[in-house]
Each structure stands twice: as structure tokens, then as C-alpha cells.
Amino acid sequence: MKHWNTLKPGESFVAFFLIRRVESKTTSGGKSYLDIVMGDAVGEITARLWDSKQEDALRFTNNILVKVKGSIVEWQGKKQVKIDKIREAADTDGVSIQDFVPTAPHSPQDMYAELLAYMSRIENDKLRETVALLIEEAGESLLIHPAALQNHHALRSGLLYHTVTMLKAGEKLAQVYSFLDTDLLFAGTILHDLAKLDEIKANEIGIATEYSCQGQLLGHLVQGILKIEKAARTVGLDEETTLLLEHMLLSHHYEPEFGSPKRPMFPEAEILHYLDIMDARMFDMQKALSETEKGCFTDKLWTLDNRRLYKR
């Protein structure tokens, strides 16, 4: 049986989904409908339950499993699901919510061990102690936390996966650009998104639910700098190294419209930005292409400036 993400417009299916986000809306004609983003471990898709009732909005909420009978339709160049029937999953269906959570492709324990191995290679004792203190404070949340509500690495253990992948790529680039300070590069990479643990709320199975109050008011760049300031002071890291590390976090989004008031002002900060954006784009490309048949184009990807990708 074909997986739902390979179906073409007009084809029908029956499948189980995890509701990621749901919103009750009204058409221009005044009729209510549910706008649902649902998915499984493979991907997600927008669905519409037309002519919904008030009780539907109460029953079908975020992070519940549902059984859906529907068909694929196309709207503004993108696939959607027109829901014909929907109900909550029952115990007798034999499905588990863990099987519907997108998960990083590697064991979180293995990735965590890799992260600690890179940290141990930081030769500056006080810098290593600063990173170690922040990793210790992060605790077990780092093992399962997603890196986003949606888009790149919005999956269980996504934050750890994103960080370790960047460390591996950064290590290779440091072999090419041998003048780079790997102490700063490894430390900045490990810490660049760590404050997402506080910016984004996630449940016990690794699903992001919403931005925290601090996350909305400050964002993970500012939150990360505050954490570095406190940890550096605790371990006695020198002022210049602290400042360089803080600049790496502050500038890694590069543009003011993406949250960075300063662009990178030294090589390790510049490399960090490109490691971050490269890993994000490779993730988005791989995900979109995995949901596309050979010889076809993906839907437009707004994270890639509305480009379509070709599946070769």
C-alpha cells in the first residue's frame, strides 16, 4: 500500500495521523471548518475538515492520534487532504503515539556522546568548563528536545541532531581553513541554539508545543547570551573569550530581520553562520525530496525562497 505522502491529487486513503496543530476557522460564507496540520514519523500535511461542528473543535486538539479517511487535493500548488471522516484513535487500533513522532535518525545517547567528545577537545580549560556547565544545566531535555516548532529539525532529538551535524561539518572545514580556532568553533556550535530549550516548550515525547514567554519576549539569541554570561562568570572565563563566544551567538542569524543585530566579525563566527544555514537547508531539502517521487518536483518551499526542488 502506498504511503499517503506519495499519493496524487484525486487519490483516496485511510491512515492514522498525529494532529500537530489545529485551528477553527470560518469561510467567507460563514461556515466553520477545521484547519489541521497532521503527520506521522515520515512527514506532515495540511488537512481541512469542512462544515465542522463545535464539538469537533473540542474533540480534535493538538497531539492526539486520529484515524482519517480522506483524499488528496491540490490548493495553490500544494497538496492538502480533504477529510471525509475522522475519529480519535482507539486502543483497539493498536497504534502508539511514539510511532507518529518524527525522530532524528540517530540514537540520542550516541549523539550526546559525540557532543561530549567534541566538548572534551576544547583545549581552553575555562572555555570547556563554561560549555560543560551549560550542558549539565540543560540536563536530559537535550536528549529529546526539537530544534523548532516547525521547519528544520522540528523532530524529537532535533536540537541535538542539528548541533552534532554542525560539529562534524565544522571539524572538516577546520581542516581546510587551518587558521580557525577550533576551541571557539566547537564551543560556539555546541551553544548556538542551546537556549532553544527555554525558548520552545516541548512535551515529554519531544513534540514542540509553543514558544515560552521568555522565548517570545527575548528569543534564544538573547537567552543564550545571558546564559553564557552567567556560566562564564561562574567558572572564571576571561572577558575577551566570553565576548567572542557571545558575539558568535548574537551574529549567527546574520541579518537583523532574522534576529541578529550584528553580522559576524571574525572567521569562527562567520563559519558558524554558514554551518547553521547549510545544515538547515540540507535538512529541508532532504525532507522535501523524501516526500517526492523520482522525476518530479517538490512543492514550493518557503524556507528556500519558494524554490521547487527536482527529485533525480
Describe the secondary-structure layout.
Elements: E1 12-26, E2 32-39, E3 44-50, H1 54-59, E4 65-75, E5 78-88, H2 108-120, H3 125-138, H4 141-144, H5 158-176, H6 182-191, H7 196-199, E6 200-202, E7 208-211, H8 213-217, H9 220-235, H10 239-251, H11 267-290
Parallel strand pairs: 3-5
Antiparallel strand pairs: 1-2, 1-4, 2-3, 4-5, 6-7
Question: What does this 3D model show about the protein?
Answer:
This protein has 2 domains: 4-99, OB fold (Dihydrolipoamide Acetyltransferase, E2P) (Beta Barrel), CATH 2.40.50; 101-287. The model has no long low-confidence stretch (mean pLDDT 93). With 312 residues, the protein is of the alpha+beta class. Strands 1-2-3-5-4 form a 5-stranded mixed barrel. Strands 6-7 form a two-stranded antiparallel ribbon. The protein has helices spanning 54-59, 108-120, 125-138, 141-144, 158-176, 182-191, 196-199, 213-217, 220-235, 239-251, 267-290, and strands at residues 12-26, 32-39, 44-50, 65-75, 78-88, 200-202, 208-211. Strand 4 (65-75) and strand 5 (78-88) form a beta hairpin. The longest helix is centred in the last third of the chain and has 24 residues, at 267-290. It contains 11 helices and 7 strands.
